[in-house]
Design brief:
Blueprint (H helix, E strand, L loop, with lengths): L6 E5 L5 E6 H7 L3 E9 L5 E6 L10 E2 L2 E4 L6 H13 L8 E9 L6 E10 L11 E7 L1 H11 L9 H17 L1
Length: about 180
């Protein structure tokens, strides 16, 4: 079964399930669904950063500071977060990712939206990223990541996933308000 055939929950503006559809239909029709974003840190507290493969349906060949993906039909956010983190990092036995917040992401053109739950997890295991999902990866300190994001903000910089950037900015703001 291809990922476009995967059945996912379609949700309303309040994140309540209204029906189910294939992932392909959800993308083609811009149906609101659920996603998880997991910020993975290694034993040295560095952030796993990667470049998505060109084969990805959404935001191909873009850089991201989160692993994650679409929540399957009937699957909880928490279940999806652990599944996606282990799949994309290529590990098993991760601790359960810790939820931080949920927000509604909408593309700038209004064409797509998804409820997004952001998590954090510590991965002290050696990673072997899923080659179908991840083309390149590295662990960066917060300062290194922020420097790259600032450098890439202008034309000609690395293209980052817009939903990942939105989640990261919200995460930084939440940390700043907790400090």
């Amino acid at each position: 079964m291809s990922s476009s055939d995967e059945i996912i929950d379609i949700v309303d503006e309040h994140d309540h399930v209204v029906r189910q559809a294939s992932r392909g239909e959800a993308y083609a029709k811009g149906l609101r669904h659920r996603c998880v974003f997991i910020l993975a840190r290694d034993a040295e507290n560095r952030i796993f950063v990667h470049r998505r493969t060109a084969a990805k349906t959404v935001f191909p060949s873009r850089y991201d500071m989160f692993v994650g993906g679409v929540v399957g039909a009937g699957e909880s956010y928490d279940e999806a977060a652990l599944r996606e983190a282990e799949e994309e990092l290529g590990v098993s036995g991760l601790p359960r990712p810790v939820p931080v917040f949920t927000f509604l992401y909408e593309t700038g053109d209004g064409g797509m939206s998804w409820w997004s739950r952001v998590y954090e997890v510590r991965c002290v295991l050696p990673v072997s990223p899923q080659v179908e999902e991840i083309e390149w990866h590295a662990f960066l300190t917060d300062a290194e990541l922020d420097r790259r994001l600032a450098e890439d903000a202008g034309d000609g910089g690395r293209p980052w996933t817009p939903d990942g950037l939105a989640a990261y900015e919200r995460l930084k703001a939440a940390r700043a308000s907790d400090a």
